[in-house]
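User: Hey, quick favor. My workstation is busy. Could you predict this chain's structure for me?
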Amino acid sequence: MRKVCLIALVVVLSITVGVFASGEQESASDQVTVGYTVQSMENDYFVSVVEGMKEEAKELGIKLVVADAGADAAKHVDQINNFIAQQVDAIIISPVDQVAPEGAVSDAVEAGIPVVSLNQEVDGSSAALLMEEYTYGYMGGQIAGEWLNKKEADGTVNKILNEDGELDVAIVRYDTISSLIDRGDGLKDGITETYTGDKKINFVVEQDGADSAAGQKIAETAFTAYPDICIFSCINDSGALGVFEAARAIGKNPSNLAITGLDGLPQALKYISQDTMFIGTVDSLPVQLGADGLNLALEVIEKGKIAEPKIASMKKVTTKNIDEYSDVIK
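Assistant: No problem, here it is.
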């Protein structure tokens, strides 16, 4: 009798273990997998976006696969095709070029894999979380225009004029991405429409540069050709940080140069807090954007296509409100 009970117990345990094992396998197979093909991890902004997305994925138990396109539009296509082959549940893309990946995005959607556009929209996407690019740039330009107004108010504007009595301004753009043309235009309009003085503004340099190395190179050349440049407004903080290094190397300071960026990167915030010539940025909340992009992908998986694009939040950051970022500045 004892032998029979032992055998029965073994059978029950075996069944129980099998149920748990089956449950674990089912849980693993049911885990949502999202692929993110990111524009470039050389750009600190996207490093922060990925950071936010990873933190949210960990919190929600999502498997996140990140692929770096390295600023190469063709790589986006390859990475999307790889995600299709892996049968991920959704794809997120921050495109280098908005047109090049359209075919791959269409293939993914046809395969039943929704695609979310993050930052800039690719036609055919299932949903989009976008920057309002012109406004984003305009807000950065406003910071520079306000700096000029202070110079007018305190009587020091004459110290930053060129030999013709005019204001030389440089813009670091990134027109390689079509939607960012609006951002660059916003930078210019933000400066000219905010400045209330009577001095002529000359945009003496307008060049493409999306990272620190490019910003530094542009600034080195620009300051050689136009030593009286008093404003450098940049398409992002990465480029602006490069400009900052070049300007610091030749002795520029807050009395004769203002540098503005966009993104709200920690190093940019640190320089703003130190009251340097890096006077302001526009915080696009990249960590939050990454988390929101992932949640949008989950929403599309559950509910299907979302026709109306969602707009990301952003705010100006200067010495006036830099104390709000004390936990970010190291």
